[in-house]
Hints:
This protein is mostly helical. Helices cover 70% and strands 4% of the residues. It contains 15 helices and three strands. The protein has helices at 4-23, 28-41, 82-96, 102-114, 121-138, 143-165, 170-190, 197-210, 214-222, 226-256, 274-291, 299-345, 349-357, 363-375, 380-421, and strands at 48-51, 55-60, 69-74. The protein has a three-stranded antiparallel beta sheet, covered by helices on one side. The longest helix has 47 residues, at 299-345. The protein is globular and about 75 Å long. Belongs to the ThrE exporter (TC 2.A.79) family. Pfam families: ThrE, ThrE_2. This is Possible amino acid export carrier protein.
Amino acid sequence: MSDxxxxxxxxxxxxxxxxxxxxxxxxAADVTVTMxxxxxxxxxxxxxxxxxxxxxxxxxxxxxxxxxxxxxxNVKQRDIDYNDLTAVDHLVRDILDDRAxxxxxxxxxxxxxxxxxxxxxxxxxxxxxxxxxxxxAFLGGGVVVCGIASLAAMSIDRVxxxxxxxxxxxxxxxxxxxxxxxxxxxxxxxxxxxxxxSLVVTANIVMLLAGVGFMGAIQDALTGFYVxxxxxxxxxxxxxxxxxxxxxxxxxxxxxxxxxxxxxxxxYSGWEATWVLxxxxxxxxxxxxxASYSPARALLPIASVSALGAAMSRLVEEAGFGRIxxxxxxxxxxxxxxxxxxxxxxxxxxVIVVSAVVPLLPGLSIYRGLSxxxxxxGQVSLGLLAxxxxxxxxxxxxxxxxxxxxxxxxLKREARRLExxxxxxxxVGPMRARxxx
Length: 437
């Protein structure tokens, strides 16, 4: 390819695709490979691609005697949108299958970015409420706790939505989210309802940390993108610090107005029976996926994969291997199953993996660790222990998912070869191998 105009269009298309993938939580390695695959298929060889947390850069030396073509695109929007991510994934597949050239691809990309969502925004708010209610259930809360947690979650979503429209930074959104969650706990305590305020706050902390890229940070570190990994980790820690500030501010307000909540322990969990954990995790994952605009056809498979992962995690923990091995085993199973399921329902594996892993994320451990470290004194050692545990769980989840994907890819290739050899529609009866002549 030597046409400068065509090269410019190709680079711009690749950067727009990469921006959408990166803003939706894709790992830097996946973004780099996808951009390079599209560029190569459109005739651009040996393009230089640089992916960081806030920008994408791409350059190509089309002539040794001419200056290289270079473009940089900043990543400003970071709202998780799995519907757009799925549309971009389908567009990439169409490009690689020669069903779309650079001009059609650019037109479709512009449509994806500009067209709004068919899902009403108030349904997303309800989905967050359902998610927090399910979290409260598998953490050990009763019906009243689940109801209060759901109302608090919907209130937090509306407050953060209003703040986002005024372009306030995410840190302040997390602070106000923590304040709102604590105010609901204070209201429950002031009304003398027989509930544990800790569970109300804990369920909403899971919501506030659900979209934070703990696992993405570890994934980037495992694949060699250390700068991006460090940036994601700093963002996660800053978001958690915002929650701590919000909760402590709410507690201080409660003391000023004379509301005694007793010993509030955000991050506390009672951990109900296995079947409650499994069902709660399934509902939590499906609700998170819906709130993240996942295609409707993916909700039931996501719930099933998450339930399988939660059950596997609990079984491994009860077998005496500990939480880290339980999380790693569950993530490995999720990674393997998600790869096959994603192909069936035509969504990227990332949509299934992230949603299914949300109930297993170590957000509570990170919150407890930072809270204890901030308290100082004799709590520092406990805070360090909680942070080490959280880091171990995050590494186990990320490495387990990646290993599952590595294992699933050759398995799927072999399964496809076997399927090509089998004869007839296999709805019932034995499978008969067809001999090639």
